[in-house]
Amino acid sequence: MFLLDFEPIGGVGRGTPCGDISLLTHTFPNIPVQVLITDTNEKIDFTKLISFTMFDAYEQSNDHWVFICDEGEENHEYRVGFISQSSHKIVKVLRNFEEWLTIF
Predict the structure, then answer these.
(1) Eight-class DSSP state of 5
(2) Concatenated DSSP letters for 31-100?
(3) CA 57 → CA 6, 42, 50, 53, 61, distances in Å?
(4) pLDDT digits (tens, 9 = 90+) for 20-76
(5) 3-class SS at 103?
(6) Residue 25 carries which DSSP code?
(7) Does the pLDDT of residue 18 top 50, yes or no?
(8) List of residues 6+ apart from 20 with CB closer than 8 A
(9) 3-state DSSP call for residue 15?
(10) What is the model's pLDDT at position 3?
(11) Which of 9, 40, 68, 87 has its CA 20 to 30 A from that of 15?
(12) Which of 60, 59, 66 is nearest to 25 (CA)?
C-alpha cells in the first residue's frame, strides 16, 4: 500500500492487505541492539522501533520511518524517527505521526 502515492507502508497484521509489521531485523539485517537517536543523543533498544515504511532496499533505499515505542507515551502518541540505512542511526525525530503527516 502506498501513502500519498509516495511511500510504501508496511502492514499491521497477517489479515491486512500489506502483510505483517516490518521487523527491523528484516529491513536492517545488521541493526545494533542499541540505536542512537542523534537529535537527543539517546540510545533505544531496536525492539522498541516499529518500521511503518519500507522500500526495495536492494534496488533503491532502505531508509525507514519508525515509531519509537517508548514507555509512558500519553495516548500512545509515539515519536516518529527516520533511521538511516548507512549509519543505522535515527537521524530525525518528529513529535508524533500527526506531525509526520503534515510533512508528507
Answers:
(1) T
(2) --SEEEETTTTEEEEGGGEEE-B---TTTS---EEEEE--TT-GGG--EEEEE-TTT-SEEEEESSHHHH
(3) 16, 26, 17, 11, 5
(4) 555 566 666 788 889 999 989 999 988 888 877 765 544 455 678 888 888 766 777
(5) helix
(6) H
(7) no
(8) 10, 11, 13, 14
(9) coil
(10) 46
(11) 68
(12) 66
